[in-house]
Amino acid sequence: MAADKEKMKIKILENGPYLVQGNIPLYEQRLITDDAGHTIKLKDMGEYPSQETYILCRCGSSENKPYCDGTHNKIDFDGTETASKKSYMEKADRFEANDLLLTDAYEFCDHSRFCLRAGGIRKLMENSENPENREIAIEEATLCPSGRLVLWDKKTGLPFEKKFEPSIVMIHDPQKKCEGPIWVRGGIPIESADSTMYETRNRVTLCQCGKSENKPYCDGSHWMNAEEKLKFRKKWDLD
Fold first, then answer.
1. Theoretical Cys-Cys bridge with 228: which of 65, 140, 208, 224, CB 3.0 to 4.6 Å?
2. 124: nearest Cα among 135, 114, 133
3. How many other CB atoms are there within 10 angstroms of residue 150's CB atom?
4. Distance of alpha carbon 236 from its chain centroid, rounded?
């Protein structure tokens, strides 16, 4: 059965799972890292059987992952949504270098570590007269699953974005020995438990471990503690 774009939606159920509608394809991928621990790509692992409607675990404790098995009721899961519904551009900081503009909404960061390779995206932008540095900066921004980073061409005013068909990816993180976020691609609408809508974007990552402090979005809590998050934030000069 083909996906039905008009019916596609992710509905967040109060203190419960994600209800996925519209026959949205569901895949598995894993993060591939270099010797320095910086993520360089995502590798396909497989595709789940097509379903018109399915429910994905949000509490992190299902024994039938990625699907919900009702465990959230047994553990009194608190799935309160704390993320702001402001638009991405309202949240984003700006960083400019040469002919490139980076918009950076740190609160979306899922800590998949794409932006650190080759000295980091900002250093690459500062040295983007070198075509290789420019290409890597574009790769790092467009590979960022959470959409925290968007890189723009200042000459055209257009963002560098991959075109994704609407789909969902369960990300695995072998380096950190854990499951990563739920990657939502291709502009799938996400509806809050209170029936209001989050901004529809090409790339976002949702929490699947139940620990995020920015629900429904992933904040890296599947592998980072508060001290590690603060250290990473300071590295980006965002305090």
1. 224
2. 133
3. 22
4. 18
Inter-CA distances, 82 with 18, 58, 222, Å:
16, 14, 17
pLDDT in tens, 63-104: 999 999 999 999 999 999 999 999 999 999 999 999 999 999
Q: Where are the beta strands (DSSP E) in the chain?
A: 9-12, 18-21, 26-33, 39-47, 53-56, 93-97, 100-104, 149-153, 158-159, 167-173, 178-185, 190-191, 203-206
Global pTM value: 0.94
**DSSP state at residue 197:** B
- The torsion defined by the Cα of 37, 39, 40 and 44, in degrees rounded to 10, comes to 120
Contact 204, 108 (CB under 8 A): yes
Find, among 134, 143, 138, the residue nearest to 110 by Cα.
Answer: 143
Q: How many helices (H) and strands (E) does the chain have?
A: 5, 13
How far is the C-alpha of 82 from the C-alpha of 90, rounded, in Å? 17
* Residue 212 burial class via C-beta count within 10 angstroms: exposed 0-12, middle 13-18, buried 19 and up: buried
On the 0-12 / 13-18 / 19+ scale of CB atoms within 10 A, 51 is middle
